[in-house]
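Sharing a chain and its predicted structure for anyone who wants a worked example. Both blocks are below, sequence first, C-alpha coordinates second.
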Amino acid sequence: MSESRKRRRSEGRARTYRNARRLGWLFSILVTIAVLCLVFFVWFAPVQIQDNSMAPGLNSGEVVLCDRIGKFVRLPERGDIVLFSTQDGLFLKRIVGMPGETVELVAGHVYINSIPLDESSYFVNYVGDMPPLQVPEGSVFLLGDNREEMYDSRVASVGCIPYDRIEAMLRLRVAPFGKITYFS
Protein backbone atom coordinates (compact mmCIF):
# COMPACT_ATOMS: atom_id res chain seq x y z
CA MET A 1 0.00 0.00 0.00
CA SER A 2 1.38 3.37 -0.89
CA GLU A 3 2.32 5.93 1.73
CA SER A 4 -0.08 8.61 0.33
CA ARG A 5 -3.02 6.17 0.49
CA LYS A 6 -2.30 5.39 4.18
CA ARG A 7 -2.06 9.10 4.93
CA ARG A 8 -5.43 9.84 3.24
CA ARG A 9 -7.09 7.01 5.15
CA SER A 10 -5.71 8.18 8.54
CA GLU A 11 -6.65 11.79 7.73
CA GLY A 12 -10.21 10.61 6.94
CA ARG A 13 -10.41 8.69 10.23
CA ALA A 14 -9.07 11.68 12.15
CA ARG A 15 -11.70 13.91 10.53
CA THR A 16 -14.44 11.38 11.40
CA TYR A 17 -13.28 11.24 15.04
CA ARG A 18 -13.13 15.05 15.24
CA ASN A 19 -16.68 15.30 13.90
CA ALA A 20 -17.86 12.62 16.34
CA ARG A 21 -16.31 14.53 19.26
CA ARG A 22 -17.98 17.74 18.12
CA LEU A 23 -21.34 15.99 17.89
CA GLY A 24 -20.74 14.51 21.35
CA TRP A 25 -20.14 17.98 22.81
CA LEU A 26 -23.20 19.37 21.02
CA PHE A 27 -25.34 16.51 22.35
CA SER A 28 -24.03 17.10 25.90
CA ILE A 29 -24.84 20.81 25.68
CA LEU A 30 -28.36 20.11 24.39
CA VAL A 31 -29.03 17.57 27.17
CA THR A 32 -27.78 20.05 29.77
CA ILE A 33 -30.06 22.79 28.40
CA ALA A 34 -33.03 20.38 28.40
CA VAL A 35 -32.38 19.36 32.02
CA LEU A 36 -32.03 23.00 33.13
CA CYS A 37 -35.29 23.89 31.37
CA LEU A 38 -37.03 20.98 33.10
CA VAL A 39 -35.66 22.04 36.50
CA PHE A 40 -36.43 25.76 36.18
CA PHE A 41 -39.69 25.67 34.22
CA VAL A 42 -41.33 22.56 35.66
CA TRP A 43 -39.83 21.75 39.08
CA PHE A 44 -38.62 25.06 40.55
CA ALA A 45 -40.29 28.44 40.13
CA PRO A 46 -37.98 31.45 40.52
CA VAL A 47 -39.82 34.27 42.31
CA GLN A 48 -38.66 37.79 43.10
CA ILE A 49 -40.05 39.10 46.40
CA GLN A 50 -42.11 42.24 45.68
CA ASP A 51 -43.06 43.39 49.19
CA ASN A 52 -41.91 43.25 52.80
CA SER A 53 -44.72 41.08 54.18
CA MET A 54 -42.19 38.34 55.12
CA ALA A 55 -39.53 40.78 56.42
CA PRO A 56 -37.04 40.55 58.00
CA GLY A 57 -36.65 36.91 56.88
CA LEU A 58 -37.39 37.66 53.21
CA ASN A 59 -37.08 41.20 51.88
CA SER A 60 -38.23 42.99 48.77
CA GLY A 61 -35.94 42.37 45.80
CA GLU A 62 -34.62 38.98 46.95
CA VAL A 63 -34.98 36.01 44.60
CA VAL A 64 -36.16 32.62 45.85
CA LEU A 65 -36.78 29.21 44.28
CA CYS A 66 -40.10 27.55 45.09
CA ASP A 67 -40.50 23.77 44.77
CA ARG A 68 -43.60 22.90 42.73
CA ILE A 69 -43.24 19.12 43.13
CA GLY A 70 -42.49 19.04 46.88
CA LYS A 71 -46.13 19.61 47.83
CA PHE A 72 -46.99 16.25 46.23
CA VAL A 73 -44.24 14.44 48.14
CA ARG A 74 -45.12 15.93 51.55
CA LEU A 75 -48.12 18.05 52.47
CA PRO A 76 -47.07 21.51 53.61
CA GLU A 77 -46.93 21.80 57.42
CA ARG A 78 -47.07 24.56 60.02
CA GLY A 79 -44.07 26.87 59.66
CA ASP A 80 -43.55 26.17 55.92
CA ILE A 81 -43.50 29.19 53.62
CA VAL A 82 -45.71 28.55 50.60
CA LEU A 83 -46.43 30.24 47.30
CA PHE A 84 -50.18 30.53 46.73
CA SER A 85 -52.44 32.14 44.18
CA THR A 86 -55.33 34.57 44.56
CA GLN A 87 -57.16 36.74 42.08
CA ASP A 88 -54.51 39.40 42.81
CA GLY A 89 -51.52 37.20 41.90
CA LEU A 90 -48.97 34.98 43.64
CA PHE A 91 -47.91 35.51 47.25
CA LEU A 92 -45.49 33.95 49.77
CA LYS A 93 -46.74 33.44 53.33
CA ARG A 94 -46.11 31.14 56.29
CA ILE A 95 -48.55 28.37 57.29
CA VAL A 96 -49.76 29.06 60.82
CA GLY A 97 -53.04 27.13 61.15
CA MET A 98 -53.76 23.61 59.97
CA PRO A 99 -57.14 22.06 58.98
CA GLY A 100 -59.62 21.80 61.85
CA GLU A 101 -57.70 24.12 64.20
CA THR A 102 -58.97 27.36 65.73
CA VAL A 103 -56.63 30.30 65.09
CA GLU A 104 -56.75 33.53 67.11
CA LEU A 105 -54.49 36.59 67.35
CA VAL A 106 -54.22 38.41 70.67
CA ALA A 107 -51.88 41.42 70.78
CA GLY A 108 -50.23 40.06 67.64
CA HIS A 109 -49.47 36.65 69.15
CA VAL A 110 -50.95 33.58 67.47
CA TYR A 111 -52.97 31.10 69.50
CA ILE A 112 -53.85 27.69 68.09
CA ASN A 113 -56.77 26.05 69.95
CA SER A 114 -56.13 28.60 72.78
CA ILE A 115 -52.44 27.56 73.09
CA PRO A 116 -49.76 30.16 72.17
CA LEU A 117 -47.83 29.25 69.02
CA ASP A 118 -44.05 29.12 69.43
CA GLU A 119 -42.73 31.35 66.65
CA SER A 120 -39.23 31.70 68.08
CA SER A 121 -37.58 29.93 65.12
CA TYR A 122 -38.32 32.84 62.78
CA PHE A 123 -38.62 36.62 63.02
CA VAL A 124 -42.13 37.95 63.50
CA ASN A 125 -43.46 41.46 63.86
CA TYR A 126 -46.42 41.13 66.27
CA VAL A 127 -49.35 43.44 65.51
CA GLY A 128 -53.09 43.37 66.04
CA ASP A 129 -55.91 41.12 67.15
CA MET A 130 -58.19 38.70 65.34
CA PRO A 131 -61.19 36.83 66.73
CA PRO A 132 -61.07 33.01 66.76
CA LEU A 133 -61.44 31.40 63.33
CA GLN A 134 -61.95 27.71 62.55
CA VAL A 135 -59.70 26.56 59.67
CA PRO A 136 -61.81 24.45 57.25
CA GLU A 137 -60.77 20.91 56.38
CA GLY A 138 -58.44 20.82 53.36
CA SER A 139 -57.26 24.40 53.97
CA VAL A 140 -54.54 26.24 55.87
CA PHE A 141 -54.35 29.63 57.60
CA LEU A 142 -51.47 31.81 56.33
CA LEU A 143 -49.77 34.84 57.85
CA GLY A 144 -46.84 36.98 56.80
CA ASP A 145 -43.98 37.40 59.27
CA ASN A 146 -44.40 41.18 59.06
CA ARG A 147 -47.94 41.31 60.46
CA GLU A 148 -48.34 45.02 59.66
CA GLU A 149 -48.64 44.09 55.97
CA MET A 150 -52.03 42.45 55.97
CA TYR A 151 -52.59 40.55 52.73
CA ASP A 152 -52.96 37.08 54.19
CA SER A 153 -55.67 34.83 55.65
CA ARG A 154 -56.89 37.67 57.91
CA VAL A 155 -58.30 39.43 54.83
CA ALA A 156 -61.76 38.21 53.79
CA SER A 157 -60.83 38.18 50.07
CA VAL A 158 -57.94 35.77 50.82
CA GLY A 159 -59.24 33.71 53.75
CA CYS A 160 -58.03 30.21 54.44
CA ILE A 161 -56.21 28.77 51.43
CA PRO A 162 -57.18 25.30 50.15
CA TYR A 163 -54.25 22.96 49.52
CA ASP A 164 -54.99 22.97 45.77
CA ARG A 165 -54.29 26.74 45.60
CA ILE A 166 -50.83 26.24 47.06
CA GLU A 167 -48.56 26.48 44.03
CA ALA A 168 -45.21 25.60 45.63
CA MET A 169 -43.15 25.49 48.81
CA LEU A 170 -40.20 27.83 49.40
CA ARG A 171 -36.89 25.93 49.16
CA LEU A 172 -33.98 28.27 48.45
CA ARG A 173 -33.06 31.96 48.56
CA VAL A 174 -30.62 32.48 45.67
CA ALA A 175 -30.11 36.24 45.63
CA PRO A 176 -28.45 38.21 46.99
CA PHE A 177 -25.59 35.73 46.87
CA GLY A 178 -24.37 36.63 50.36
CA LYS A 179 -27.69 35.47 51.84
CA ILE A 180 -28.18 32.11 50.07
CA THR A 181 -30.38 30.04 52.38
CA TYR A 182 -31.99 26.60 52.17
CA PHE A 183 -35.49 26.29 53.65
CA SER A 184 -36.46 22.71 54.55
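Comments welcome. The chain is about 25% helix and 35% strand.
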